[in-house]
Amino acid sequence: MEKVVNFIDQVEVDSTDLFPNVESEDAYERIGGTATGGGTFWGLGSLLTKAKGFDELLALAEKGDHRHIDMLVKDIYGGDYKTLGLPGHVIASSFGARFSEADIARSLLFTISNDIGQIACLYAMMHKLNKVYFGGYFLRNHPLSMHTISFSINYWSRGQVQALFLRHEGYLGAIGAFLKGAEGDADKYSWLENYAGSSGLHTQIPTQVQGVSMDQLEIDRGDSAVTYCPLLAHPALYIPDTVDLTQDTEAREYWLRCFEEAAGKYESRAVSSQPISDTAKDRARKFKEKYVSRLQYLKIQPFAYGSLSVRSLLDTIEHYMREFDFPDPYLEQKQQENEKALRLLSKRLQWLDGLEWSPRQEALVTSVLAGNMFDWGAQEVAQLMENTDFGFYEARAKIQARPWLVDYLSQWMERLKGPPHKCAAIFVDNSGIDLVLGIIPFARELLQRGTEVILCANSAPALNDVTHVELVGVLKQVAEICGVIRRGLEEGRLVAMETGQGGPCLDLSRLDQSLAAALQEKVDLVVIEGMGRAVHTNLHAVFTCECLKMAVIKNRWLANRLGGDMFSVICKYEPLVINNITALLPFEIKNTFTSHQTHNNKNKFSFCWI
């Protein structure tokens, strides 16, 4: 991937607010606007205070207290406001009391922000929209303005309309112009923000020009174009992440603490991956310092870099690893584990072939689950692998006995009694035992049933996950051991394809175009394996074809939260989508899924440029 850093330091303040209604990239219309905006705040603020600069006014507002100048509901109605159904802290009259300059600035900011929020809410409700995106120089990731507008939208819509804010506000025109200019190669490349090099809320990058700071956006150019997975049942509703850490305080506090405690492990792994380098220790130390600093900042401002999830935290690790020149710290570990697993494969296949049909199908699934235990990103499992002789059979003994936490194995086996699938796409996870003793025998069984198989692997390294290049090499070695695999490769019935991704999770809105085309052409079964791809992401993803999700929960806190214990199993088979799609889901998962479907027009939204 190539990195592109874009600096912009001069943008005009918007004087008016525009409200376009956006249905798609090509379908949008202006539905209204207001003359009150950033220019109003600057103009009135300059007249009412000694502050003359826009940022100076915002800084002044941060210090003020609007309650000193604004009259609240409780000030006017006394103790009777509760009978009116009004909260006492709501502003009843702006500029209605005594004041200081800081109070004036804060009150003015609240007045304009509340006005914008109410007008935006009215337009959204008029056009039956449930999302309003805000952008522009007036905001620029300013928490106070964002909070006020969010409060206003939520209050006036009674929680029916959601306020969302674009990152890098104030610079969106320049960013859009850059990406527009790159459209000539849109079929060759894709772009993705690099969290390691981009600024967040109040984290501007100092420059050599005295007194001048700039925001920074760093984006990576991928080597292939990406697109949505064509098998998603509701692509407009698709959200990769199972949990939004900006909304779930308990989960956010746990995962930020968990990743901070694990930072030393990543540092040690980085150093050991480059034993002859004189600079490895220093670079690894800087990696840890920068990553821990980011985690501590996210504790204060969880929305500073947009959405916050386990996926984004894991992706940030990979970004920082590459920034400090540790592109694949698990490379040697993966090679060793592949070689070890390959030595066990022949005997394992012979044992599986000796089983009757039903025991073999169960053994194939439990083999995938046992293999999925070998995840260096799971700290408790990593300790087992470091400190004990932990192998395939030890892993098999660790996983939960049936019935599992989510147990659809019987339904899956019943389906296998029917006609074979045309083509299965298997999104693979870890190298070594997971791939060789888990996924390969599972794919081999499908091939013997007459099903074509696409093994989908990462394009770039992440933890000990197998990459596409590594997968191709392993398959060549497996072909020397197993005739079924060899014939599958020779006949083109077994192929390896890259996903276009480089993280431990799976975002089905950004799949390599070649893979997406293959999925659309012939795939009628999707298999997703691993905690990162099937639990942290895509647990609620619904497809237009059959789907099998398999994972072992290798984190005690998460297992307990899902109602299980350490090493609980998720084996979730979903038949073809039917009218009542949630009827197929377990109760807890069903409730979480349906909570995302309370409104219509999910693919429509209003955009407010301030």
TrEMBL record:
* Species this chain originates from: Timema monikensis
**Name of the protein this chain belongs to:** 4'-phosphopantetheine phosphatase
Q: Which reaction does it catalyse?
A: (R)-4'-phospho-S-sulfopantetheine + H2O = (R)-S-sulfopantetheine + phosphate
Q: What residues does the Damage-control phosphatase ARMT1-like metal-binding domain cover? A: 279-565
Matches recorded under InterPro entries: ARMT-1-like_metal-bd_sf, ARMT1-like_metal-bd, At2g17340_3_helix_bundle, ATPase_NBD, Type_II_PanK
What GO cellular component entries does it have?
cytosol; nucleus
The reply on keyword Metal-binding is yes
- Return the SUPFAM superfamilies for the record: Actin-like ATPase domain, AF1104-like
Q: Which cofactor does it need?
A: Ni(2+); Mn(2+)
Q: Which GO terms describe its molecular function?
A: ATP binding; hydrolase activity; metal ion binding; pantothenate kinase activity
Q: Name one GO biological process term.
A: coenzyme A biosynthetic process
Instruction: Supply the alphabetized keyword list.
Output: ATP-binding, Coenzyme A biosynthesis, Hydrolase, Manganese, Metal-binding, Nickel, Nitration, Nucleotide-binding
Q: Which PANTHER family match?
A: 4'-PHOSPHOPANTETHEINE PHOSPHATASE, PANTOTHENATE KINASE
Q: How does it assemble?
A: Homodimer. Interacts with PKM.
As for what it does, the entry says:
Phosphatase which shows a preference for 4'-phosphopantetheine and its oxidatively damaged forms (sulfonate or S-sulfonate), providing strong indirect evidence that the phosphatase activity pre-empts damage in the coenzyme A (CoA) pathway. Hydrolyzing excess 4'-phosphopantetheine could constitute a directed overflow mechanism to prevent its oxidation to the S-sulfonate, sulfonate, or other forms. Hydrolyzing 4'-phosphopantetheine sulfonate or S-sulfonate would forestall their conversion to inactive forms of CoA and acyl carrier protein.
